[in-house]
Design brief:
The protein is built from 30 helices and no strands. The N terminus and C terminus are likely disordered. It is an all-alpha fold. It is globular, with a radius of gyration of 29 Å.
């Protein structure tokens, strides 16, 4: 017995028991990742407790508790954003703000269908590879010189992000830009571009530096020059800048735009909101100015000499720069080779190109000012009039994109007229061949950003809760002291605050939370609601400092060429420029085109009968 105990003890001595400090450390390390669970439970418990303790007549306070809990969980991402978006559906009935049927009906509506249809078309565009063909074609036209190459990368991303997800566009563009950078790196090492570009004043310094460069070159492991690394940073940063700026150009370009449309329609029912055409008229010029400003800023920091040569119309391809000509010819050849690999236009690319042009055409000419659009002609044809004798238009923007999206599930991905006889009955193994469509359910379930739809639904519920509980009126009274303040100054403060907030939180969640507050602020200072709502919404998409701000920022930060300090260095300046330009835009041509000079009567009373 003693021997057995001794044997056991000897085995235990080989594996000593952990000390109490090690056990405590392990317990702490286990608890640290669980802070989200503890924080979520604490927020839900405390806000529910406080809301239930408030008097029955204090609906504003109970609604504020629910919105505060939603805001905290959205900002900290303690719970997934999609799940947090469901919180109003659970909390509002508990605290007596809205019943379950009413709050759940807010989660999917006309704007949700518009966003869903846009996702489907963008997914089919991405699946067929048409976006890559467009990007390579633009780069082949502009890829001659540092400044032009940066412009090409920015313009490609800017155009595609108007119709596709900003994150998906960035994810597609970064590998293309990376291959171009690698080609430039190889060409520099082949041509010895560093030797040709040495420009020093003193002859002895020039000779010593050239000898040093030549030694490194002969060794075969010459590192990239400082100028080349600097240019690569600017080229990569141009991609997320173009993606974020391009999203504000169209109504469906980025979720915050549709959040504005949905909250405006929920808060002021019966009032005409922004359609695709009107949004494009007011926001496209702003987006164009911002992309030019972003390109100019990045060129001045990362490719100054090439930029000044371009804008001053100097002869960039002089004889003494024959190596420069050769280098950019190689780059352009590389881009053309990538484009050639795509081959000729395939059937799905042609169909998607036609569908894309049809979609834009139908959106732009659905309703027109001065003449009748095709939707108005349709309403006249079916004799659609309301009780006041006013023409009632049944077809909206969502119908256009959903109708085209449904056709994508019908049209085959291969040309049915090539190499076969139409309507020939299948024989043999052909009976079991499954025809592939331009869009299938598997792709939709895998790539559709469902979280955005739930966040958007949570925004509808919050807006309705603010209105039904009277919280929006209470918030408006708190801002009544700003009544005599200049509206431009208030817009500048709103734009700055939103731009800072979206550096740390989702722009969709931030817009969803802030727009009902901006509506109340507009009512308090007697300014058109769209003035501050447009300012806040446009500013929410312009976050360039931190990787966590947007999907495009996170993707470019993952590249080894980019550090946080690089993003902050240019992002702070870019944010400042964007805030000033956005406020200037909403206070000038947007102010005029949307007729925001007068405070509308329906902003206080949404009854159309009283507001005529």
């Amino acid at each position: 017995m003693d021997g057995q105990y001794e044997k056991v003890n000897s085995n235990d001595s080989e594996k000593p028991l952990p000390s109490i400090h090690e056990e405590n450390g392990k317990a702490i390390r286990t608890l640290v990742p669980q802070w989200k669970t503890v924080f979520t439970a604490a927020v839900l418990f405390l806000t529910t407790l406080v809301a239930m303790c408030l008097p029955i007549e204090n609906k504003e306070g109970r609604a504020a508790c629910v919105i505060l809990a939603t805001a905290l969980l959205w900002m900290t991402e303690a719970m997934p954003l999609m799940i947090t978006g469901l919180l109003p559906a659970v909390m509002f009935p508990i605290v007596g703000i809205m019943d379950t049927k009413e709050v759940c009906s807010k989660y999917f509506n006309y704007v949700s269908m518009l966003m869903m249809g846009t996702f489907l078309v963008a997914e089919s565009l991405e699946a067929c590879g048409l976006h890559r063909r467009i990007a390579l074609k633009i780069l082949s036209l502009l890829g001659r010189g540092e400044a032009l190459l940066m412009l090409g990368a920015g313009v490609c991303t800017w155009i595609l992000s108007m119709f596709m997800s900003n994150t998906a566009t960035t994810a597609m563009m970064l590998p293309i830009v990376g291959s171009i950078v690698q080609s430039l790196r190889d060409i520099n090492r082949t041509l010895g571009d560093d030797v040709l570009s040495v420009k020093l004043d003193k002859a002895d310094e020039r000779e010593s530096d050239v000898a040093k460069v030549e030694i490194i070159k002969a060794d075969g492991s010459r590192p990239d020059s400082k100028e080349f690394k600097w240019f690569c940073k600017g080229l990569f940063l141009m991609v997320p800048y173009g993606a974020s700026i391009g999203g504000i150009a169209t109504l469906t370009g980025t979720p915050p735009n549709l959040v504005l449309k949905s909250i405006f329609e929920a808060t002021f029912p019966g009032q005409k909101s922004l359609n695709y055409q009107k949004w494009l008229q007011v926001s496209f010029p702003l987006s164009l100015i911002l992309i030019c400003a972003g390109w100019t800023l990045l060129c001045l920091i990362y490719a100054r000499s090439s930029y000044w040569s371009l804008i001053t119309c100097q002869a960039c391809w002089r004889k003494e720069k024959s190596a420069e000509i050769l280098k950019w010819n190689h780059v352009n050849k590389k881009i053309r080779q990538e484009y050639t690999k795509l081959g000729s236009f395939r059937f799905p690319e042609v169909v998607l190109l036609i569908f894309g042009l049809m979609l834009i055409f139908l959106w732009l000419f659905r309703e027109l000012e001065g003449i009748k659009g095709w939707a108005e002609l349709h309403a006249e044809y079916i004799g659609s009039y309301d009780s006041k004798g006013k023409l009632k238009i049944y077809i909206k923007d969502a119908w256009v994109v959903v109708a085209l999206a449904l056709l994508l599930f019908v049209i085959p991905a291969e040309n049915p007229f090539r190499g076969r006889v139409l309507f020939r009955p299948p024989t043999g193994a052909e009976r079991f061949v499954r025809i592939k469509r331009l869009l299938d359910l598997e792709t939709v379930m895998k790539k559709t950003p469902w979280d955005v739809l739930f966040i958007l639904g949570g925004g509808y519920a919050i807006a309705a809760g603010c209105k039904d509980s009277g919280l929006s009126v209470w918030i408006g009274h708190q801002f009544s002291f700003l009544h005599n303040s200049p509206h431009v100054v208030i817009a500048l403060v709103v734009s700055t605050f939103v731009a800072i907030l979206t550096e740390f939180a989702s722009n969709t969640a931030s817009t969803t939370l802030l727009l009902p507050v901006l509506v109340s602020l507009s009512q308090a200072i007697r300014v058109h609601p769209l003035y501050l709502m447009m300012t806040g919404t446009l500013s929410a998409s312009l976050a360039f400092c931190l990787p966590s701000a947007t999907g495009p920022n996170a993707l470019v930060f993952a590249h080894p060429e980019i550090r946080v300090i690089d993003m902050i260095r240019t992002g702070l300046i870019m944010n400042f420029i964007c805030v000033l330009i956005t406020v200037a835009a909403t206070s000038t041509w947007i102010y005029t085109m949307l007729n925001l000079s007068e405070y509308p009567c329906w902003a206080d009373d949404t009854d159309d009968i009283l507001c005529t």
